[in-house]
Amino acid sequence: MNRCKLIFVFLLILLPVFLFAVDFGFMTSQYASFGNPDVEENKFTYKGIFYPRFSSPVGKSGDFSMTAGLTLGAENGFYCVPELLRTEFMLRFGAGGLRVGRMFYSDPVSFVASGLFDGAQYYFISKAGTLSAGVWYTGLLYKETANITMTQSDLQNFNAAIDYGEFADTYFAPPRLLASIDWEHPAIAGQISLKTALTAQFDLSDNDDKLHSQYLTMKAGLTVKKFIFEFGYSLETAQNQGVSAEEEDESVFTIAFAWDAGVYWMLPTPFTSRLSFNGHFAGGRAAGNDTVYAFTPVTVKYYGDIFKQKMSGLTVLNLNYTARIASALSASAVVSHFVRNDLGTFSGYPVNAEENGGFSLGTEFFARLIWSPFSDFQVNFGGGAFLPALGSAGPDEKAQWKIELTAVLSIY
């Protein structure tokens, strides 16, 4: 507890040091939930996050911004985690610009890599679209924020509890180098948006199960009156060490596929509302084929609110309805069905190891109500359940359920 107090005081002292023509702000997010995340027993979870932030112009064409974070939580005991969040220097010159620091990056489909990364990115804007190139490092990020579990070694690192006596070995994300060249155009012929990226990541760890991978990702969108159609695709090539090679030092070449499709319909209702259907597919390992492997993203993105699983060897179908009922009140409801694409890539709940023969994992139902009486304050209440009974992989397994409440306050 004393350690957390010292960290919190340090964060409060650190930011005012930079207060030269600074825009200073503070935000806090208070989260509480109750449910059965491990199915066997009900648990209460609390997480409070405090975000001091500031920004300042630098010269005539630059900006600097910094956000820190301190998380205090209760889940199987009390914990506190300090974190440096988005901290970025941006310099603009002509039609281009340079970003340096801890910044947000996402590939066109958010399948490969999405989140905060340390590095630099150059971009150039022209009539032909925006071209950008960036290089980033992951080994200085907090592991739960980075959410990198590409290999078994990565997963063990992610699941290990933080030990301040061995801080360097238990706090940071796996060391990987990420590089990407991206191009996007917002309105080809006034209707079609197009994004594409060539991304590569290099495993810089000393682990025996090293994994290097490369991705070609594309996403297209078409707007037709009140409808938006989107389709994304990703091709992965990888060099996988020690996975199925006879020699430990031998590298195995594999390929994998992923796609994403969505239809969005702005409904003709008196209030703003939208109905959408999305399909997300991340290929699994092809039976009898040593080349086609399970798709492995750099960062993990979840497509369920309760059933949170890595998109590798899975298909997720979402039907989502959102509505702004009043100026301060909005609501959403989503139904998601999960299917595994092969019988080997995905394991764990709700799969029954003895009867491991079903592909359909189950269906999740989740609803959310958001009240925001003014822009700096929001209360978010949600709840739902994941039902294996609506699948074939483990129809007799217990349901997962959760209710949650989040309150967010911003002070500028």
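the 2nd protein, sequnce then structure:
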Amino acid sequence: MKTSSLAMVLAASLAPAVSSAQHRERLCVATETRRLISAPFLAANGSDRLVAAPFATPSADGAAFVVAVRDPERTFRVGDRAALRRAITELELHGAATPVDHVPGTVFARVARDLDLIGEPVFVEDPVPSRREGETFPPGVPVGVTLGAGVLVVEHVAGDLYATMVPPDGPVPALRRVAQAPPAASTGTHGFVWLTATARTVGGHAGAVVLAGTEDGEVMALSFDASGERVGDPVLWQHRVGGTMQLLPLPPAADPAALLERPVQGTTARGDQAREQVLVRLTDTLEPSGDPVRLGLGPFPTAAAMQGSSLLLSQWVEGHGLAVSSLPLVHGRLQLATPRVWTTHGLDGAPLGHAMTTGGDGVFYDLATHGDTVAGGLHAYLVYFDGAGTPFPRRDVFPLRARVIAPPQLLPAEDGLVAVMANVDELGGGVDAVHLRCDLVTLPTR
């Protein structure tokens, strides 16, 4: 194998069996599909994201994780709206049954390991009305981090940052403002337009950190303790950035770091601004330390997870190859490594989302979803990594036919993983959960 300037390209294609000697493989099958929250109609507003995060300790009645999804049009059938009539002739596929005096908000649902709802989903109104058309800008809402007391959910409403701590049981507290966006400068647009969060030691104790940015390139950093309370005042960077950022899930002893999607000279094949992913090292106060470092990764959605003492980064390159970087941690500092690219047959449809998680069996699972541009099919491509870091793919692991509104979020399961997403299908819309079971089986020699 020869190393190019950008990646180390393997001669073998990314295929389920890499050689005739491969007898034991993981077969992944969807064993359970549930619609957790239903809505007669869902519309993408350009900023749809959802939170699916496990509780550190499940509740006595079995709540293992929480799902939080924005509901600006008030279309989810929860609370007093669950009893609304819905005849077969009134599926509302061409419009939402939105109350005239509705207030935007967020829906929270607690879910058991077997995907059963624990209690009823609850709708929490926004504390203030939004002053902007469309409510938010991508990819702003919401993000979640698992802490000792529950799951911290942060989102932006009317341009500012609001947060709440969702406990394993009991009521969900109202959103409270934790940061005010700096005044608009050149763009005239007030408010944060991107948001990222991860678990992090704060003041010597478990907590969370958040970065949020504006269209003017201003970045604000926040810290939270294990109870979800803000620690200190928000820190406004003295430097401006030219793109969105993604905090990396590093261990407590490591120096914090983030990915920045930075513009570069040139245009893409579609005529868009060319961009690349660069590494930004941060100080303990979450301010940039030194110059950004090039990683050899493009502007595609990047998934990240810790694998032993290394950080694993992956992204699908134009749907024709999987780029993987393994960045070792040396004395708590990320080191650079050349990405490797496994080529494959082109993925069907348009890309919709990309995420990675570590399953309960210790295997790393990477999921990419694509939507069929003709028939509305949903293609899900699952890649798992063995101990040596070699990827093995599985195609079309979801038995769904739907239009994805919120890209999938992944949760670990004892025998694989759970994917949670917001979809629209022939029966309407809602939040769906799919349990993928992956067993190591012995296959006949090919």
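The radius of gyration is 22 Å. The CA atoms of residues 159 and 386 lie 43 Å apart.
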